[in-house]
Structures are given as structure tokens and as C-alpha cells.
Amino acid sequence: MIELYHLYKYYEDVPALEDINLKVEKGDMVIITGPSGAGKTTLLKLLFMEEKPTKGQILFMGQNISNVKKNEVPFLRRNMGFVFQDFKLIEEMSVYENLSLAMEVLWYSKKYTDMKIRSVLQEVGLLHKIHVPVKKLSGGEQQRVAIARSVINSPPLLLADEPTGNLDPYLTEEIMKLFKTLNYRGTTVIIATHNMGLLKYARNVVRLEKGRVFK
Amino acid sequence: MKRTFIGKSALMLNRTFKMDSKEFFFFVSSVFIIFLISDLILGFKWFYSGISLREDFISSYRMVGILKEDLSQEELRKILNDIQQVDGVRNAVYLEKEEVINFISEFIDLQKMDRFVPHVIEIYIDEKWVENLEKIKIIEESIRKIDGIEFVDSARETVESALKLIRYVKKGGRFFIVMLSIGGLLIIYNFIYLTFYSIHKKIEIMKFVGASSGFIKIPLIIRGITAGISGSFLSFIFMRFILHSEVFLKEFLYIILYSVVAGGIGSYLALRSERV
Predict the structure, then answer these.
(1) CA distance A103 to chain B (A)
(2) ipTM
(3) What is the pTM of this model?
(4) CA distance B23 to B39
(5) Less Cβ crowding at N or C end of chain A, within 10 Å?
């Protein structure tokens, strides 16, 4: 699914990632861990094409995305879901409107969008809050909406950057179980976290330290 | 499963005009700013075109000819006739003594004047020749040669200076309109930039969920153009029907075009700043 070859990322002269070589198989659940500043978020940003590597190659589903053109990025991103620590939801909009945005960009019909939103909200247990504005939801509920949005188009890859960073231990477990369920259904999941307690959910663990893979 | 062309158009229209309260506030404010700037440009143009300096100067220009003393009525008629035959002369009028006195008394204290009032002819020149100083010189010399004419004054230096001044005033006016238009463009751009900045989180999220550049840009550019059309239309209505100014189709089309370009380019540049 993902292959990284001699990947480097420098911010001016400061190295953020150095010589990263990594393979993530289809259906894997990988947790990237390490202390703050180890390069976890940078690695996810490179995978999500938010930034470009200084050197090296990233292959995603066999395609080199390390130097992809700006106008191709949205189309490649449709094969990925991304979950953020701060949820990145539009708070004034309802749960339904937030999810429909992800369907609209792919020009899905209203009928199909309705059906998909109900189905994905059923999965994350929030169907009863479909028309509630996001700002009225708890942190855990907001993160479940964010996960629902990231998987609504059934992307083969799900990336999550500190998805439980803002949640208490109970909600953390709830969210991780949700990731596990999605992984069982075939979605490849890559989670970046500094919380060592989450490692039990991983099939594979990659530890980063000072921008390098720690072996 | 996917939308048809009509479905896609309906979605784009919905995305263009469905605004939350913050977006609506900024949209209305953009319309108002465009309205003010359009009115300022239209108002200045209206005021400026009202001052027809060049036309007023040209239509009121005339040469003055002083005649020799003791001319008979017959000789006077002949002189007037000869002057009218000169190429470029529109008309020549003999001034009655009272008219000359009235004219001179504006400049000279007649009590101190020790000589008698001269016989004066006013010579009107074809408007198309007034700006041509060489032609005026030729006309002046032709009239001077006519028997019975003592002196001709075309005030060529004054004409030259006046025309130069009028040209500067015209250029200054045009420069002011251009600067006002550019300044307006920058203000409109800044305002649209603020509008988009207020929704930059929404734009960022759309990018994260895989929205193409066109999907994000098109509704916002259409919104900018709509703000331009609405603002300029309101300013036209205001100028034409409330101030009763003479703003016609040409000015209206100009200001619509300006506002559409300002709204469209402003939106496009603002989106580029947002790295869409």
C-alpha cells in the first residue's frame, strides 16, 4: 500500500526526517510513535501530500506521490481519510452538513449521500445526532464525526494524527476500538501518537526518534 | 449515484449562495464597498464631464479686429464680407459703440481714456481650427492684409497657454479616475480577501476531503462577481434615480465591467493567497 525509500525532509537546514525506509502492507494497522518532535506529524503530512519531501520517494498504491503536481493532490486524497487531533470540523454546521461536504466534492447524488451518511453515522453510533450542530457535541462525539467523515467515501487508507490527544482514557478506548473495527473491514490504518498505551491496538509499530526510525 | 450536469450546477449554485451569517455579513459588506467605490468613480466622471472646459473655450474664442478711422458704411460692409471669405472664419460681427464701451469699461477706466472709442469687429473662427495655432496665425495674417484693417489680435499665446492648461486638467482628471479605479480594485480585493479569510478553515477542510481547486474556487469567484454586479447596479440606480445624474448606458456598462473584473480578480487573487 505504502512504500517509503530514503525519505528526507528538511525545514531550511533543520532535519525533520532522515533516511526513512518503510513498507505498510494493505490491511495493516500501524502505529507511529515517538516523543514530541520525533517527526511523526511530518511523516503523516508527507503521506497526505500536505508537504513535499526534500529527498526520497513515496509510493502510494504503486504511484510515486513524492513530487506530485498540485492539481493532482485532491484526486489522490480521495483515496485517503485523515483524522486530526483537533477534529477539523466546521462547528457552525450540523453533523449531516459536515459529512455531506466530503460527499459533495465527489459529486455524489443527494439520495446516495443521505444513505451513506446514515450508514456511517450508524457505524459510529451517532445517527441520533445527525442534525445537531457540531459545536453542541462532546469531544469524543466530535472525533467520531471526524472519523465518520474520513471513511465515508470508503478510502483504502486512513491516516490519524494524535486522534485521541484531546480525549479522556474512556473515550480514547472507544475511538481506538472504532479504528480497529475499520481496520478489520479492510482499511489500512496509520496512527501517529506519543501515547504508548495505544500500542496494544497496533499490528505493527514504527518508533521514530530525532527524525529516524528507531530499531 | 453521481450527479447529473443539472445536479452539479444546482450544487454549485447552492454552494455559491448558501452562506452562514458571517459569510453573509462579509458578502453584503463587499457589495456596499463596491457600491461606494463605483459611485465615487461614476460621480467623479459625471462631475468631470460636466466641466466642458475645452468645448467652452473653443466655442467662445474669437479674434478682435480694429478698423481704421472714418470708414463709410459701404467700406465697412466690404471689410466684413472680405473677412468672412477668409478660409477658417465662421463669422464676423461689427460691434456697436455701446457694446465696445461696455466691453472696454470692464478693463479700463473710461474717464482716464483720452482717445476716442475704436471701431471693433469680432471674428469667430471655425471650432475645428481653434486648436491649430498655425492656422490661427494664417487667418490672422490674411485678415491683416484686408484694406481698412488697422490691427488684429488673435491672442495666440493666451490660446496656447489655455489649451495647455486644459490638457493638463484633462490628463489630471483621467489620471485621478485611473488611480481611483486602481485604489478601488485594491480595496475590493482586500475586502474579498477578508471575506475568504473568514472562511479559510472551511476552505482548508474542503481541501482535506479532496475538493478540487475548481470545486472551491468557482462558487467563490461567482460570489465575488455577483457582489461586483450587485454593487455597481445599486450605484447606477443611486446615481440615476436618486441623484438624477446623467449616467447613461456607456458609464453603466463601464462600471459593471469594472466591478465584475474587480470582484472576479479580487476573488481569484484572494483564493491564490489562500493557496487554493
Answers:
(1) 9
(2) 0.85
(3) 0.71
(4) 24
(5) C
